[in-house]
Specification:
Distance between the termini: 52 Å
Order of helices and strands: EHEHHEHHEHEHEHEHEHH
Radius of gyration: 18 Å
């Protein structure tokens, strides 16, 4: 049978992603990605350390990031993203910038990190007061607060879970409970849910509808920033950061049907 009429696969643009060894949410990242873009993921080497400041430093060493980026260059991505929040804020703003520079040197391509993408998103939305939700221990959470404050953004509320492992298994209902605890009426311009290993895609529109503030998450800002570097847009219904296809942000938050709320209420 002659199938030559089918042609070949559609041209794809590539985003390289360096993730920590325990990252378990590849599928979530893909949900923000349009059909003409492919994600190429690689992971940092395993280290027997629980989620902590020590782990954040270990998985973000420049040599480790450089080796990962060099591996990704084999498939020629146009941009590379380091998808780890704590690993990219643990050294403050100067440390985050140095990571980007190290990755660019290793692959001769633009580089960004989750924490750098967060600051870009806050600037895009004009956020000056930010509520935080993290799965981390208090010590890791405090360093995130310091990172945000260093950027001139006031921390307007915090809730954390105190976890050191298996963060990807946290159910949506726990994320929602933490968000309700962190966001006080009128106190915050937006909410950020930290950690790329914490599932968030499906709760973002639900929380925006309830809390009436933009809701950002680690994986969301990472994909938003990486795709913007390509001159294209992330995909995400009812997410203020993503906005509408014409580039505008939603003017009001939706009231979603009950069947779309099942699993977290």
């Amino acid at each position: 049978m002659d199938v030559s009429f089918l042609g070949g696969p559609r041209p794809q643009r590539g985003v390289g992603v360096v993730a920590p060894f325990d990252f378990a949410l590849d599928r979530e990242l893909w949900r923000w990605v349009p059909d003409d873009v492919s994600l190429h993921l690689t992971r940092t080497p395993f280290v027997p350390v629980e989620v902590s400041l020590d782990l954040a430093r270990l998985v973000s060493e420049h040599e480790t990031l450089g080796e990962a980026v060099r591996a990704l260059t084999a498939v020629a991505p146009e941009v590379v993203a380091y998808a780890c929040t704590s690993g990219s804020f643990v050294g403050g703003i100067a440390g985050e910038r140095a990571m980007c520079e190290a990755m660019t040197r290793s692959g001769a391509l633009p580089a960004l990190t989750t924490s750098g993408a967060l600051l870009d998103a806050l600037a895009e939305l004009g956020v000056r007061r930010l509520a935080l939700v993290t799965p981390y221990t208090v010590s890791v959470t405090r360093v995130l607060e310091e990172y945000v404050a260093e950027a001139g953004v006031q921390v307007a509320g915090v809730a954390f879970m105190g976890l050191t492992r298996h963060i990807w298994q946290v159910p949506y209902r726990d994320v929602v409970a933490m968000a309700r605890q962190a966001v006080r009426p009128g106190a915050a311009d937006a909410l950020f849910i930290s950690c790329t290993n914490l599932p968030t895609y499906d709760v973002i529109p639900q929380l925006e509808a309830e809390l009436r503030v933009p809701v950002l998450s680690a994986n969301q800002v990472t994909m938003w920033a990486a795709l913007r570097r390509l001159g294209t847009r992330a995909v995400g219904p009812y997410q203020t950061l993503i906005g509408h296809p014409d580039g505008s942000a939603p003017r009001e938050w939706p009231v979603l049907p009950e069947e779309q709320q099942e699993g977290w209420t």
